[in-house]
Amino acid sequence: MREQLIASLHRALDATHPTRLTARHLPEQPPSFIVSVGKAALTMLEAALERFPHTPYIAVPKAEGRPKGAHPGGVVLPAGHPVPDGRSLEAAQRVLEAVGRLGPEELLLVLVSGGGSALLCAPWGVDLATKQALTQALLRCGADIQEINAVRKHLSRIKGGRLAAATQARVLALYLSDVPGDDLSTIASGPTVPDRSTFAEALAVLDRYGLEFPQVRAHLRRGLAGEIPESPKPGDPLFQRVENRLVGGNMALLEAARTYWQGLGLPAVILSDRFQGEAQALARFHAALVESIRAHHQPFAPPVVLLSGGEASVRVRGAGRGGRNQEFLGWLGYYLGERGVWALAADSDGIDGNTEVAGALLAPDTWARSQRLGLDLKAHLEQNDTHAFFRALGDLLITGETQSNLNDFRALVVGQGLDIF
């Protein structure tokens, strides 16, 4: 079952490869310029370069690399993630200068995937150091992606539709979604998408989580007072020359996994691609569902594979290492105890939290093995140190960076009693 769980993730990633998803939506007209940004920047760009091999481009990925079809007219500018750095500033400035040179008769192709918020950073009203500290604070406090981006959009010259406003060209933007619900304005902070969030909402996020940041608050209050302009909103005439299109998201990943499990003869159901909230609460829900299936055959009869996605959050209280998927599995193991289950949880980009792993695996005997090794799961959870727990068990999942980003992937195989198939 361990091998099948891992295979289900890899099959799903293969079926939803960004190059394949992007190729289906490319325009007939050759663009004058291509901007590709995000964790899937290079793989999305490869599809465009296969169709338009001579078009100049700027790619801003997280990792070093060259896309297939690279040519002297293109440049790759790796930048910082999840916290922006000096390279993020340089990349944003290069992009803004390039698109600013395009005329109204030209076509700009923009390829966007998750991670772009940090990779393209053009601070507005604050300095880089402040934006870095704010990004770290937002990531640690448990704010969800919509809250984080409401703040980031109002501190940027490129996010929240401002990239589209920076060019006179017609714009076709293709988005690969890493957010629950596939809201294009949230993916990479929607650089070409109308922004519904406001200065007031951004300020409310800081209040909600007790984040001070005087320089940030001063800038947001200026916006609230009308002293500086809001981000472009729905109905703004500039979007008459912009087309934003979704090319793939978490549901496609889960559907591919469902096909894999059904091919093995196991019923598989997709619970949702939109789960959000604390990893602990999400694990408690999944544990209760597992117990209901075992005890009452409700809402599904065993055996069944439960698939879910979305994006959990973690309120960091300890000094350990981990990520939302390792945290989810740790709490799932804690709530199920000796009545464990086969499960896998991973980030589809291959990097979970502040670790080098995609996620981890849980087994029916995880609790028993941890007891034999003298591991205290609750203590690891309290320190946000699930990485050390799963490492000691040999249950970390390492894929390397996938150059995709379709949010989280969870698979639980539920039978009756101890789920040993």
Based on CA inertia axes, which overall geometry fits?
A: globular
The tally of helices reads 16
**Strand composition percent:** 15-25%
Strand order within the widest beta sheet: 3-2-1-4-5-6
CATH topology of the largest domain: Rossmann fold
| CATH architecture designation of the largest domain | 3-Layer(aba) Sandwich
Domain MOFRL-associated: 7-220
Protein name: Putative hydroxypyruvate reductase
GO molecular function, one term: glycerate kinase activity
Keywords: Oxidoreductase, Pyruvate
List the helices and strands and how they pair.
Blueprint lengths: L1 H14 L2 H6 L9 E5 L3 H11 L5 E4 L13 E3 L9 H15 L6 E7 L2 H4 L8 H13 L4 H9 L8 H4 L4 E7 L22 H10 L5 H11 L17 E7 L1 H14 L4 E11 H18 L7 E10 L10 H13 L5 E6 L11 E4 L3 H7 L4 H6 L3 H8 L2 E2 L10 E7 L7
Parallel strand pairs: 1-2, 1-4, 2-3, 4-5, 5-6, 7-8
Antiparallel strand pairs: 8-12, 9-10, 9-12, 10-11
Helix pairs in contact: 1-11, 7-9, 9-10, 12-13
InterPro entries: GK-like_C_sf, GK_N_sf, MOFRL, MOFRL_assoc_dom, MOFRL_protein
Organism: Meiothermus luteus
Protein name: Putative hydroxypyruvate reductase
